[in-house]
Design goal:
The structure is a single chain. By secondary structure, this protein is mostly helical. The protein has one domain. A two-stranded antiparallel ribbon has the order 1-2. The termini are far apart. 33% of the residues are buried.
């Protein structure tokens, strides 16, 4: 796998792909039928002249609505199947499997709808991030520590792992599921592919954000440490450097909080709730399985649920890194001996502390609901509670 990823990296480096548009375009092309966003840069278009790097292609909107219609029809079919199972008195396991698949398709139909409704916010976020990366005001600060090769490696690795899971899940749905029609199987595969693609996009973009933020903070800490030790080897003065960093933190906060959250936050909430519900269903059905033959019908559902559970918390963890970097830098500035600085420089450090405290980037779904690792204990507690209740009444089900 590493050899395959390294070959892709070397190929992209030799072809001159050295900008964010080229990298983001790899994952944008995989979901063009949901969010028709196209990237434009000098590597892909020789006629590119100072226009927006990312924009919506209106001619592709018909494919987005076709996907929504397909998922909605599939949702209606699942509702009818559930009613049929209840009326005919089939096994409880078959009914639960149908309900779980219905939740899966319904949840990710909502994700697709949210992605379409928030497409303008997504384009604004991508363009803002590209402008920040190309801004000469910040570029000369991070130029020595920024390396696209390391970012590319994680891009291709996530893309490769996501593609492998989609292929594996599609194989299980088509060849291992015994009671599904062709249309239902197509809906399940489309839902899985959509969600995995959005997950890969989110993780890759958050990785660029974290990398960019770490580079800026590293230069800040290095400059302050040099100044504390009596040296000043940089061409720009410390007060000018701090002024640039303060301006960057404001722009960075607006890019992440005001633009990224409006797109990513609601998707993460819907995806998280659907995954937790599916996990509870899987554990609930596990207690009903008494024969090995029934296990074959449920194994690919459990695989899908566990992978989506890993995916959503990988996305949450990537978002948490942004806040952790901010907290680490803020802690350093609080402990920094400003008495060794001039009055103007000390004032700049205090303003920087204030800016970091009031402009802390967080992945939020709303003004009061933060999507982060703080939710893990409460979610895990809810899952454990449902499982314990299910196990407690298991003998009654068997009878």
């Amino acid at each position: 796998m590493n050899r395959f990823v390294n070959k892709l990296i070397s190929k992209s480096l030799s072809s001159g792909e050295r900008c964010m548009v080229c990298l983001i375009g790899l994952t944008l092309n995989s979901t063009c039928f949901i969010i028709p966003i196209r990237g434009h840069c000098r590597h892909q278009n020789a006629k590119y002249f100072n226009r927006k790097s990312f924009k919506l292609e209106k001619r592709w909107w018909i494919s987005s609505f076709a996907v929504i219609a397909c998922l909605f029809i599939s949702f209606i079919k699942y509702i009818l199947d559930i009613k049929k199972i209840l009326s005919t008195g089939d096994s409880k396991l078959a009914g639960l499997l149908a309900v779980e698949e219905c939740i899966f398709v319904c949840a990710f139909m909502l994700v697709a709808i949210i992605a379409i409704l928030r497409s303008k916010e997504r384009v604004s976020f991508l363009n803002s991030l590209e402008i920040m990366l190309k801004n000469k005001y910040y570029k000369e600060i991070i130029d020595a520590s920024w390396k696209w090769a390391a970012v590319r490696k994680w891009f291709y690795l996530r893309l490769f792992l996501g593609l492998m899971f989609v292929v594996t899940d599609s194989f299980l749905v088509i060849f291992f599921k015994e009671d599904g029609s062709l249309y239902k199987n197509f809906s399940l595969i489309l839902s899985t592919y959509t969600l995995i693609s959005l997950n890969v996009q989110g993780c890759n973009e958050l990785a660029i954000i974290v990398k960019f933020r770490i580079c800026i903070d590293m230069r800040l800490l290095e400059h302050l440490n040099m100044r504390r030790n009596g040296g000043n080897s940089y061409n720009i003065q410390l007060k000018e450097h701090l002024k640039r960093i303060g301006r960057f933190y404001v722009d960075f906060h607006n890019c992440v909080t005001n633009r990224l959250n409006s797109f990513l936050g609601p998707i993460m909430v819907v995806w998280n709730l659907a995954t937790i519900i599916m996990l509870v269903f899987d554990i609930y059905m596990k207690t009903l399985i008494v024969q090995d033959t029934s296990e074959k019908k449920n194994i690919f559902n459990q695989l899908r649920t566990l992978v989506h559970l890993v995916g959503i918390y990988a996305l949450v963890a990537s978002g948490e890194k942004v806040t952790c970097v901010s907290d680490s830098t803020l802690s350093f500035l609080f402990k920094y001996p400003i008495s060794k600085l001039s009055e103007i420089e000390a004032h700049q450090v205090e303003m920087l502390i204030y800016t970091l405290s009031t402009h802390k980037p967080e992945i939020k779904a709303s003004d009061i609901f933060t999507v982060g690792n703080r939710l893990l204990p409460s979610i895990s507690g809810a899952v454990v509670t449902y499982v314990l209740v299910a196990l407690q009444f298991r003998p009654a089900w068997l009878n």
